[in-house]
Design brief:
- By secondary structure, this protein is of the alpha+beta class.
- The chain folds into two domains: 6-173, Ribonuclease H-like superfamily/Ribonuclease H (Nucleotidyltransferase, domain 5), CATH 3.30.420.10; 191-242.
- It has helices spanning 45-63, 76-91, 105-120, 137-150, 176-190, 211-218, 232-241; strands spanning 6-14, 19-28, 32-43, 68-73, 124-129, 159-161, 196-201, 204-208, 225-229.
- Helix 1 (45-63) packs parallel to helix 3.
- It is elongated, with a radius of gyration of 20 Å.
- This is ribonuclease H.
- Its cofactor is Mg(2+).
- It catalyses: Endonucleolytic cleavage to 5'-phosphomonoester.
- Its EC number is 3.1.26.4.
Length: 244
């Protein structure tokens, strides 16, 4: 199976729904990765999910060109809306099947517009449901960006070579070429100076400044987890992948 030209992961978050919120997105070509995100002091989770998709696809539209695009989204609301419902809403004057005004029309319209623009330019978009908090690194990273903005903090957003990006964006783990890419990233990470070493023993997490300290805690103990992190954001990704 041919890999897509562009892989996108998006996520939205709201503390309170409505409440403070944020969105995060990762846009990756074979050579580069750009992280996007922003916050809103009073919003909903669905609004942030839509904002993430709009912003990511708008970024691709601004690149110009004809691409195959894989959209990985953990919101059935977004996927069903753009693939099943929006055409009917437009025909019916933005009235839904319950004869009520469509919620979030101010966001559905720009999403439908950017999708139409990309399709007219020859792009092909595939929408994939990606369950949240399931250890999928691309989704986990988008979630961290979104929740950090929701907490009124500013995460460090990556913009650079894909070979230097630590998050695994591979959606098809069985593809030998993509597995080789994942391995090369792992080797690259091993050559980067450690930010910390994490160990999880009997459900208790500890952070270590040296590998010797971490090794001493985990050596000979069954069922432990341990991993090197290279940044504060990397720490968050590791802990989330461990269910913490």
């Amino acid at each position: 199976m041919k890999s897509p030209d562009i892989i996108i992961y998006t996520d939205g978050s709201s503390r309170g729904n409505p409440g403070p919120g944020g969105w995060g997105a990762i846009v990756a070509t074979s050579e580069r990765v750009v992280e996007l995100g922003a916050g809103n002091r009073h919003t909903t989770n669905n609004k942030m999910e839509l904002s993430a998709a709009i912003s990511a696809l708008s970024y691709v539209r601004d690149l110009g060109g004809e691409y195959t695009i894989d959209m990985h989204v953990d919101s059935q609301y977004v996927i069903n809306g753009i693939t099943k419902w929006v055409a009917g809403w437009e025909r019916n004057g933005w009235i839904n099947s319950k004869k009520e005004e469509v919620l979030n029309r101010d966001l559905w319209e720009p999403l439908a517009e950017v999708v139409a623009d990309l399709q007219m330019s020859g792009c092909k978009i595939s929408w994939h449901y990606t369950p949240g908090h399931a250890g999928i690194e691309g989704n986990d990273r988008a979630d961290i960006i979104a929740t950090t903005f929701a907490d009124d903090e500013k995460p460090e957003l990556f913009n650079g070579d894909r070979s230097e990006y630590d998050v695994d964006l591979v959606p098809h783990a069985g593809d030998p070429k993509l597995l080789a890419l994942k391995k090369s990233k792992s080797n690259l990470k091993n050559g980067v100076k450690a930010y910390s070493y994490l160990s999880l023993v009997n459900g208790n997490l500890e952070k270590h400044t040296t590998w010797a300290e971490c090794e001493k805690r985990v050596k000979g103990v069954k069922g432990v987890k341990f991993k090197k992190s290279v940044s504060a954001d990397d720490e968050k990704i590791i802990m989330k992948s461990w269910g913490l």
